[in-house]
Amino acid sequence: MLEVIGISSWGFMLKELGFRDYSFVETVVSTYSGNIKNFAPIGVVKKGRNLYLKLFKITKTYRNISENKECVINVVSDVEIFYLALFKEKLGVNKRFPNFFLPSLTVDAPRVKGADAYVEAEAENFKTLTNGKVEVKLRIKFVEIVNPRPKVFCRCDFAVIESLIHLTRIPVFVSQKRWVEAEKLIKLIEYYKELVERVCPKSEHIKIMGKVAEENEQWKKKIAG
Ligand SMILES: Cc1cc2nc3c(=O)[nH]c(=O)nc-3n(C[C@H](O)[C@H](O)[C@H](O)COP(=O)(O)O)c2cc1C
To answer: What is the CATH number of domain 2-145?
Structure first.
């Protein structure tokens, strides 16, 4: 039944969602390890009919996809979901929010509640890259848009996502003793915090940036001392 909709229809729906060939977009990818649900912020790029992920081998997402061969790409506009996905262990998301996930329709991977759309996909090929990364080629099995509402663009969405990405890179630079690069990211996060305070005071963004800033401050102290 689901296979009746051809691949070109998926292409149309992906375009609706903002996917463009050779442009990276930020999503949340959910997977299973046995019956344990996992979700993580991951970049995705569309090239023709396929989607590609570049995953660090150390991530659970990579481990789960290489085992299960399936995943859901959750198209998310709510930055809080990105935040929860990055800090899931620290925040105990799986225990605190048992209803955070939904079943998917065509793959052995869960969907994340609150996403605007779901792209269910299976891994077709794995290519080892440099820097401990693997490129995963995905074949789309099903696309569902659950929230087609248009949304205004807010600078704070960008600022929060950039800060979360930088926060994942600081420990890498620190472990490689690349102090100048780590300090540069710390300064950028400080700048984005100021921007969010200015542009979106009293928002959900401020709360998230507060937490990000705490982590950032700890890295700053570690580097200084
Ligand atoms: C917006 C954003 C995009 C990210 N994109 C990627 C990516 O494309 N590949 C990757 O391996 N890690 C990426 N990361 C880092 C992972 O989300 C992070 O390492 C996470 O802890 C992995 O979780 P997991 O071990 O549950 O898979 C990204 C982080 C953020 C905040």
So the answer is: 2.30.110.10
